[in-house]
Design goal:
- The complex is a heterodimer of chains A (about 60) and B (about 230).
- Chain A is built from 2 helices and no strands.
- With about 60 residues, chain A is mostly helical.
- Chain B is an all-alpha fold and about 230 residues long.
- Helices cover about 65% and strands about 0% of the residues of chain B.
- Classes of the chains: A mainly alpha (about 60), B mainly alpha (about 230).
Chain lengths: ~60, ~230
């Protein structure tokens, strides 16, 4: 059980983290920092996929 | 829940998967699992002292306080100890934020200490005004600290990020487990031995150790500031 506003802030923070990783990854790719770019892009993508999966499972079980 | 030991106290603002028992330890699994924070905290404190890194002992002290505060919170399920639990968590997120701020801007130890104390006081005050704000404040502070780390990574990449990768990996996994537990998606309320939240505690104790490993790359004593040069 969690306060609805706190829940929104947490979701917002996760969304911010995903955007941050993807943007920074894109920027590193532009600077040809391949190792760093790959890590940031895969971290962002992994978080995005994980969030969508959890969301789908939750909407199907609730 | 009549005649329970913690009955007279204001209840906590948050409820996890594990059922609350009418006893001195209301959530056994969520309580015992805090031992990891205490063990890791003592280990960090001793290592930091041996390395003569005064600033890093704060990570050890905070970890012990998180363990004790969180243990009392889950044992009692009261708002009073929820405050203590979150104060320990703010100390950890505040360390990340202020250490990174100092690395990025080169501000003096004195100013950074003032920022650290003000940050913790403001977080605690916000929680007393708006009770459920604790976790949100912690999450926002972690997000800011990660943003600063990302800026440092983009600006200059002269340090080992291996411990940092361990921290982010462990924290992401544990946060997922925390979410599955609190939303009751993966949940057995009658299991008082191991719960998702207990796993969150144990994994985060490991994450705190790698936070220490990461920051032990820097000197906290040299000219009173962080140095990106490897320590002697």
């Amino acid at each position: 059980m969690i306060d609805p506003l706190v829940h929104k802030i947490l979701l917002g923070t996760i969304a911010y983290g995903i955007c941050l990783c993807l943007t920074a990854g894109g920027f590193q790719l532009y600077r040809k920092e391949k190792k760093s770019a790959m890590f940031l892009l895969s971290a962002g993508t992994m978080m995005l996929v994980l969030s969508i999966t959890v969301r789908i499972i939750r909407s199907n079980t609730m | 829940m009549e005649n329970c030991p913690w009955q007279g106290f204001q209840p906590a603002t948050i409820k996890f998967c594990e059922d609350q028992l009418c006893s001195w330890v209301t959530q056994p699994a969520n309580t015992w699992s805090n031992i990891g924070f205490v063990i890791v905290g003592i280990l960090i404190y001793r290592r930091a002292q041996a390395m003569k890194q005064g600033g890093l002992t704060l990570i050890g002290i905070s970890s012990v306080l998180v363990g004790v505060g969180s243990g009392m919170f889950h044992a009692s399920s009261t708002f009073l100890f929820e405050v203590f639990d979150l104060l320990g968590m703010f100390m950890i997120s505040g360390i990340l934020l202020c250490f990174n701020l100092q690395r990025l801007t080169g501000i003096s130890n004195r100013i950074n200490t003032a920022i650290y104390l003000a940050l913790n006081a403001a977080s605690a005050a916000l929680m007393l005004i708006w009770h459920p704000s604790g976790i949100a404040t912690f999450a926002v502070q972690i997000a800011i600290a990660l943003t600063l780390e990302l800026l440092l990574h983009i600006r200059r990449d002269e340090i080992s990020y291996r411990p940092f990768l361990y921290v982010t990996g462990i924290f992401t996994l544990s946060f997922l487990i925390w979410g599955l537990d609190i939303s009751k998606m993966v949940c057995d309320p009658h299991n008082h031995i191991l719960t998702g939240h207990a796993v969150w505690h144990l994994l985060n104790a490991a994450a705190i150790f790698f936070i220490f490993k990461f920051y032990s790359q820097f000197s906290t004593t040299k000219k009173g500031r962080f140095s990106l040069e490897p320590r002697a």
